Amino acid sequence: MRHLLDTRTLGREESILILDTAEDMAAAQQREVKKLPALRGKTVVNLFFEDSTRTRISFEAAAKRLSADVINFSAKGSSVSKGESLKDTAQTLQAIGADGVVIRHPSSGAPERLARTGWIDAGVLNAGDGTHEHPTQALLDAFTMRRRLFGRHSRGRDLDGVSVVIVGDIAHSRVARSNLWLLRALGARVSFVAPETLLPYGSRAWPVAVHHSLDEALRVERPEVVMMLRIQSERMHAAFFPNEREYARNWGLDDARLARLREDAIVMHPGPMNRGLEISSRAADSERSTVLEQVANGVSVRMAALYLLLSGERAGGAAAPEPPQRGDTDHRGGDA
Question: Keyword Metal-binding, does the record have it (predicted)?
Answer without folding.
Answer: no
